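<given_protein>
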Amino acid sequence: MKKEIPGRVEIIAVGSELLTPHFQDTNSLYLSARLNDLGWTVAYKTIVGDDKKDLSLLVREALRRTELVMVTGGLGPTGDDITREAVARALGTDLELQRDVLERIADRFRRRQLPMPKANRKQALIIRGAEVLPNENGTAPGQLIRVGGKKVVLLPGPAHELKPMCEKFVWPLLGRERRGHLSRAVLAMTGLTESTAEALISDLYPKTADLGLTILASPGQIEIHLLAFSAESRLSAETKLRGLKSRISRRLRTYVFSEVGESLEQVVGLLLREKKKTLAVAESCTGGLISHRLTNVPGSSEYFLEGVVVYSNVAKADLLAVPPDLIEAHGAVSVPVVRAMASGIRRRSRADLGLAITGIAGPAGGTPEKPVGLVYVALARPGAIEVQKNLFPGKREQVKMQSAQKALDMVRRHLLQKAKTRERRAR
């Protein structure tokens, strides 16, 4: 029987504006990160408009399925600030005007030499039995209500009010009532699809609630998010996590390029620096994206010598000495041309490795023989040129992203293979 992890949380963001494309709920990201640090598990995140009935029903449901409900927003003085009333209705209780809270709000206006609008009296309405959480950066106090062993926390919507309130009042309280210890890890991979990754590790999926595994996909990259829980200690949680991570890493082997949050370009940079190798890049369809990513890494001048964008056939000939008759015979997107590009950039820059890429990013330009998404990548090194043919799905930007990822991974795999060859020779 599956054991439930204690300390489940639901975050409810209140505000009709958050249901439009113009505003984002950034508070929940902050809350999730801090709650995880304290050993609480965020089970649900919900956005609800400024409707008392909807919010009231949602709070009731949240209390049924979680131990802690955190509601952000809707504590202001205006008519659409309905959180206090809706939560009181959900709990079957009333609001009370607290004079000391009202005085603190009035004092804030006095210090600014402003009269307090009547509407702000509403912010001194506190749910019966609630603990008031002082707001040192605004007029909306937070509230903490205990309900039969569970808790509801009301927080102001503005981040500059919510975060200090949490740091000073909420997190110390929840830390003292820690429900356990959580450890997390992310395995970043490239070179396989989400469905392939899942098939490779299907038998390793956790069968108990104290371990979690989620696969997330983006163009050219897969992330496996791992979670381990222990009621006893952080060390116990980390030991469980280490075991799960090790099993998955062994299964996926060279597809995993990072276990500590590094980007692929960072990993490539570390390997180039470690092997004391230099790299130069010639780009056509990616338009400088590979060079951009490489130079985003501090210290990349140690190993990255040069990057050229040769978008036209004339540029390929002038800058890389690609023979025009080669382009005419095979087309700019072809194995012979990408080989010549890789050789040309390596010769021009005198780098140890020359990386080249050419392809059809779309949406136009494809043919039955050379469809949109066809991309060739070449890596020139002393005595050899390796070429990979790829066919990437998606729109123009996605094709470019996947192409850059594949090119960087080609460099990574070459450097890793070289290291393994040395190991075998040493034995």
The domain at 181-258 is CATH 3.30.70.2860 (Alpha-Beta Plaits). The longest strand covers residues 221-230. The chain has three domains: 8-176, 181-258, 264-426. The chain has 13 helices and 17 strands.
